[in-house]
Design a protein that fits this description.
Blueprint: H1 20-26, H2 32-65, H3 73-93, H4 98-105, H5 109-137, H6 143-154, H7 164-192, H8 200-231, H9 235-253
Helix pairs in contact: 1-2, 2-5, 2-7, 3-5, 5-7, 6-7, 6-8
């Protein structure tokens, strides 16, 4: 079978020039150098985060391997069923049944169940071992760190939440997450013998505390200035007060005619 094709046009992509005009088109940048530095920093931060997360996963895996975790198989089975039911609900929300999803992956329900069960079991062991490590090392986080992590992960501030209950739930979740992240950092330092870079939430928490401390100092200085001003009348006020006092004394000692 033969096909006849008529070529009407030939085009090739034309990339824009790497200049200030491009930088101003793609974002809030004045020069191409600003755009370049922003993109470069983003790539470096992402790469460092990936390396850190991989290191944390590896050291936790090693710790789990040398640890003994005792638990009832029923716990894993129940959690696996819960994961599957959540997945079923999420698929239904997208207009797909679990059976259709499994057919697309070309796996049976039993294979899918074993897959989920293995993942749940691994996560359960990681959690148990890490929680024991946290208690043994007495690892805690400050409210500033959990708040910083909440802002980083959600791009929201406490004022953005609909009600107090929602805010408290978010604070509890990100406090727990912050503790886990700090524990992994400490574990990596113990295993490698090398200091790990500060977590993003630690850096932001330190900045917020420093900013608050600076505000407190400025407030104390302002209060001190107001107190000094109130306690130190001007020379004109002193002279007027002394003059009034002299007149009062003279009036008291003036003889009666």
């Amino acid at each position: 079978m033969l096909y006849q094709v008529t070529l009407k046009d030939v085009k090739k992509p034309v990339l824009p020039a790497l200049d200030d005009e491009l930088a101003q088109m793609v974002g809030d940048f004045e020069t191409f150098e600003e755009l370049y530095n922003t993109v470069r920093t983003g790539i470096e931060v992402s790469a460092e985060r990936h390396i850190t997360e991989r290191l944390h996963a590896e050291v936790l895996s090693k710790l789990v391997e040398i640890s003994t975790v005792e638990y009832s198989p029923r716990i894993i089975e129940k959690r696996a069923q819960q994961v599957i039911e959540r997945s079923r609900a999420q698929l239904q929300a997208q207009g797909i049944t679990l059976e259709e999803y499994l057919a697309r992956r070309d796996i049976s329900y039993d294979e899918y169940y074993r897959e989920v069960k293995e993942r749940v079991e691994a996560e359960f062991k990681n959690t148990v071992v890490l929680q024991h490590y946290i208690r043994s090392r007495n690892i805690t986080v400050s409210p500033w760190e959990s708040l910083a992590l909440l802002i980083l992960e959600t791009n929201m501030t406490p004022d953005d939440f609909a009600d107090q209950t929602e805010l408290e739930e978010a604070q509890l979740y990100y406090t727990t997450l912050a503790v886990l992240r700090k524990a992994l950092k400490h574990l990596a330092e113990e295993v490698t013998g090398e200091p790990q870079p500060p977590l993003p939430e630690e850096e932001i928490a330190a900045q917020m505390q420093e900013h608050l401390h600076t505000q407190d100092e400025e407030g104390e200085e302002d209060e001190g200035d107001r107190t000094h001003t109130a306690e130190s009348p001007s020379e004109a006020e002193q002279e007027a007060a002394e003059s009034n006092e002299e007149d009062h004394v003279q009036a008291q000692h003036q003889p009666n005619e």
